[in-house]
Amino acid sequence: MAKLSVDLDLVGALADLMDDKGLTEVEYSQGEQTLRLARGGAVAAGAVYAAAPAPMGAPAPAVAESPSAEPAAHPGAVPSPMVGTAYLSAQPGAPTFVSVGDTVAEDQTLLIVEAMKVMNPITAPKAGKIVAVYVADGEPVEFGQPLVAIE
Predict the structure, then answer these.
(1) What is the DSSP secondary-structure string of 107-140?
(2) By the 8 A CB rule, do 133 and 67 touch?
(3) What is the pLDDT of residues 41-60, one digit of tens each?
(4) Whole-structure pTM over 0.70, yes or no?
(5) Beta-carbon contacts of residue 60 (< 8 Å; ≥ 6 apart)
(6) What domains are there in the chain, each with its CATH number?
(7) d(CA 98, CA 67)
(8) pLDDT tens digits for range 90-134
(9) Smallest Cα–Cα separation from 137: which of 68, 38, 58?
(10) Are 124 and 108 in contact (CB under 8 A)?
């Protein structure tokens, strides 16, 4: 059996993310290793959880800071229509659908939210400029959570 290795910096960062976003659960996977943090709930028996080591020299995905203190308060915030996992590109290693500063057209795909093994494209409700991306690739999202902001 492989030795369990836990990246305490990653655990701390995920715990901070849970506090900042008001999440009750967050899961991070890399390869065959998965780390899940949950508040006030039971963990399924028999599941294996291990921290995924950060790849050497690979920068963390950039998540833009909100132009306002509260992402949901931004008038152009695009909320998640469902609970799921956000993906910023069509497949791992592919370019992201949008980045901060990009101009988008109405109905252009902004990102994908996977829910129950179904990939759901989240499209721009209006044309404009992406001023913030509030989620990271592979991040769990809640219903109504702001994903991006368009001005």
Answers:
(1) T-EEEEEEETTEEEEEE-SS-EEEEEE---TT-E
(2) no
(3) 433 333 333 334 444 444 44
(4) no
(5) 54, 136
(6) 1-57 (no CATH), 71-150 (2.40.50.100)
(7) 17
(8) 988 899 999 999 999 999 999 999 988 889 999 999 999 999 999
(9) 58
(10) yes
